Amino acid sequence: MPTQDLMDKLVSLSKRRGYIFQSSEIYGGTGSVWDYGPLGVELKRNIKERWWASMVHRRDDIEGLDAAILMNPRVWEASGHVDGFTDPLIECTNCHRRFRADLPEVAEGQCPSCGKKDAFTEPRMFNLMFKTFMGPVEDSSATVYIRPETAQGIFVNFLNVQGSARQKVPFGIAQIGKAFRNEITPGNFIFRTREFEQAEMQFFVKPGEDDEWFARWMDVRMQWHKDLGIREEKLRFHKHGPDELAHYAKDAHDIEYEFPFGWKEFEGIHNRTDFDLARHQEYSGKRLEYIDAPTNERFIPYVIETSMGVDRTTLVVLADAYREEDVEGETRVLMALSPEIAPVKAAVFPLVKKDGMPELARKIQSDLRSAAINSFYDQSGAIGRRYRRQDEVGTPWCITVDGESLEKGTVTIRDRDTLEQVRISMDQIVTWIQEQLS
Ligand code: ATP
């Protein structure tokens, strides 16, 4: 499928079926900000919950945290963001649009918007942090930043979490939250946006043990994406060369996916050394050392960070799941989402709208609801069309109530991927689905 085709199809399906809408659409939208609709919010929540379960609930060496978006502005001086979080910005003197100077077309001298050649201004550095004011006075002493990453909330709480949770190094702190960057050239749907969510984990280790933990976290995170069902041939690592490394990093590997627009990062694994804790110690004047028992050795831990973009991962999941198949001469559009993260787990249909079938189907849906299994009821149109509508949004199972259901109390369950149907007793449906999901 041509590249742009797949992106266009994803954008249009997302809007039509309630995955993702443009923000403030009735006003013409707002620059690269997106809203998640009824299906999108479920998908994104399921991705976040899967991450949280694997990072926090299934481990005893990681604690959770939910730090505020607004922080003391000194945090961003210490972290290096005030001075260093910049991209080179260039303006086309013909159409006055601004772009990142390192975009390939721009580097070749051509404006991506109006096509004019060699009409760019000299690049100037542009800070990506959004600024606002705290309190009633709008002057520089009241400036605060809207966080561009969640990590700093973790660093400044390092000792609070370690002490209150009585953790010992090595241990980690995990957080999911919004981050904001005033990207110069956002785009590619939810790939690069100005408001996005990150799922970050900072793992604090003894200096000297950092390389080993880095390798371990690379494996764990890559496996997480494979277990989510992402096609292995579309996943790879990209090691940062010396010119790509962030100011704080000793080593960095991106996990990349082959998007329709090329191989791009959607998670970063970084060895941040003791840079952040040491800087916060220096700027705050508060000791951020860890005292190792029983030797009483004091040290500032090194940090291995895993930083996953939740929105980019959602795009990976959607792009990877999208299929078009030929079924008996008709095109079947299919979202082959892992059932674990599919927004709707089961759709319930009465075969016809009479003979007590709708009532029975409603009863099944009510049982699913009581078990907190997200389901959808549909009685309109031919059964084939109802199946297709669910295939397109990735619902793994369709339950149909038919004549036999009335006589024998059984239903068919159709599998989205194999199209195979099994017949089971109505009172087994909830257990059957729970078993498939476990
Ligand atoms: P890029 O090079 O694409 O700008 P980055 O290297 O600056 O990304 P990090 O600071 O390492 O990204 O952030 C970690 C993760 O946060 C990224 O892998 C990505 O998934 C997500 N992320 C960063 N910036 C954005 C954005 N503007 N929109 C959506 N997700 C983002």
* CATH architecture annotation of the largest domain: 2-Layer Sandwich
Portion of residues within helices: 25-40%
| Gyration radius, rounded | 25 Å
Q: What's the N-to-C terminus distance?
A: 34 Å
Helical region count?
14
The fraction of residues in strands falls at 25-35%
Major sheet strand order: 3-9-10-16-13-12-11
The computed structural class is alpha+beta
Q: How many E-type strands? A: 23
Unreliable runs: none
Sheet of most strands: 7 strands, mixed
Shape: globular
**How many structural domains are formed by the residues?**
2
CATH topology of the largest domain: BirA Bifunctional Protein, domain 2
Give me the CATH superfamily of the largest domain. Answer: Bira Bifunctional Protein, Domain 2
Taking all residues together, what is the mean pLDDT? 94
Specify the CATH class of the largest domain.
Alpha Beta
Care to describe what's here?
Helices cover 32% and strands 29% of the residues. It is α+β, with helices and mostly antiparallel strands. The chain folds into 2 domains: 3-70 and 147-318, BirA Bifunctional Protein, domain 2; 344-437, Anticodon-binding domain (Rossmann fold). The strands form 7 sheets. Strands 3-9-10-16-13-12-11 form a 7-stranded mixed beta sheet, with helices on both faces. It has a 5-stranded mixed beta sheet with strand order 20-19-21-22-23, sandwiched between helices. Strands 5-4-6 form a 3-stranded antiparallel beta sheet. It is globular, with a radius of gyration of 25 Å. The mean pLDDT is 94. It binds adenosine-5'-triphosphate.
